[in-house]
Specification:
Length: 361
């Protein structure tokens, strides 16, 4: 059995599911804070292996999904300009803004390119000195270090035709916001392993202590998730509230210090609006003052764009775990991957996309 097969082994999964059933004596609501985990749960039917008393809540763990509408509109405004090469990860091209999406704008002739790393956009700027090249930086702390590296290298080389539209967000503040909400249902968290591989998990310790809630850092394969759920439920049943690291083969408590130092040099922590969730204090990253020259919002004077979410889209409730995707009346009707009302239907990590793809009602 190879490494990947071991973490998808059906017999190990069945044993973990049996262990969860054996330890569970009452209902519990557990939220996974990672879109990748959500897709694994639905794809492999992990939730169907669990006792009926265990309710898995799909949280705001998809960075594409929580990117506010205003930033999609800012991206569209920049990309529509004739001298711009606009670069983005592929997931962002289908996310609807107020007036269309980046893919539609590309079809109309805008120079919009899918890149796999911000450094690809940096190389495009070096190769096209007469064009303005803009990279759309979105994502949690997982992708923020490579964006920081691109900004750092642009400044170091004095590259004048490169800038970044930054909408990176931070996980611990949104967990705090969910727990502080009067509608909170969460009794335990599965933490996102890839975020913690960068940031460590020291920021989760005060959250667990303050809210008396277990947080288990885990990975994305079925065995990882089931083991994480077992540890979380065991804590709940024993009335413990600790941070446990199920994903020790990847995550260390201190995280990646070099990546953290680079982020601290390039970014500053700011308040950020999340799509469907509203403003959350200290939940975003923005370029620090030393990088104003590479700030696309300043270069293209886009501070005044404000937009409203479409009333029919209930993605905000999905992102808060208040409803499951299929409970939205538009799910599979007026909202499909081909014609999405919101990002949760179109993103590869969105909960609505997972339910639609794997036909879960």
């Amino acid at each position: 059995m190879n490494y990947l097969e071991a973490y998808r082994d059906p017999e190990t999964a069945k044993k973990l599911a049996a262990a969860i059933r054996a330890v569970t004596t009452r209902p519990w609501n557990i939220m996974e804070v990672c879109g990748g985990q959500t897709h694994s749960i639905i794809k492999y039917g992990i939730d169907q292996l669990l006792p009926a008393a265990i309710n898995l809540i799909h949280g705001p763990g998809c960075p594409v999904c929580v990117t506010p509408l205003a930033y999609i509109d800012k991206a569209l405004a920049i990309a529509a300009q004739p001298d711009v090469i606009f670069c983005s990860f592929g997931d962002m091209l289908r996310v609807p803004g107020s007036q269309g999406d980046l893919l539609s704008l590309k079809a109309q002739g805008a120079d919009i390119r899918i890149v796999y790393t911000p450094l690809d956009a940096l190389a495009l700027a070096q190769q096209n000195p007469s064009r303005q090249v803009v990279f759309f930086g979105v994502g949690f702390e997982t992708t923020a270090p490579t964006t920081a590296l691109a900004a750092y290298q642009a400044k170091r080389s004095g590259l004048k035709n490169f800038s970044l539209l930054i909408c990176h967000v931070r996980v611990p503040p949104v967990m705090q916001a969910l727990l502080n909400s009067p509608n909170n249902q969460v009794q335990g968290f599965l933490g996102a392993g890839h975020v913690c591989s960068i940031m460590g998990y020291h920021e989760y310790l005060p959250i667990a202590a303050q809210h008396k809630i277990p947080i288990v850092i885990t990975g994305f394969e079925p065995v990882d998730i089931l083991h994480g759920l077992y540890l979380c439920i065991k804590q709940l049943e024993e009335r413990r509230c600790q941070v446990e690291n199920e994903y020790g083969r990847v995550v260390k408590q201190q995280g990646n210090l070099a990546a953290q130092q680079l982020m601290a040099q390039v970014f500053t922590i700011v308040d950020r609006s999340w799509r469907g969730l509203g403003a959350i204090p200290a939940s975003g990253l923005a370029l620090s003052g030393g990088y104003d020259q590479w700030n696309a919002e300043q270069r293209f004077a886009l501070d005044d764009i404000n937009t409203q979410e479409p009333a029919a889209c209930r993605s905000g409730e999905v992102l808060q775990g208040l409803i499951k995707p299929a409970q939205c009346p538009e799910f599979g009707n007026s909202c499909t991957p081909e014609h999405p009302l919101g990002a949760t239907m179109v993103s590869s990590e969105g909960a609505c996309a997972a339910y639609y793809r794997y036909r879960r009602g």
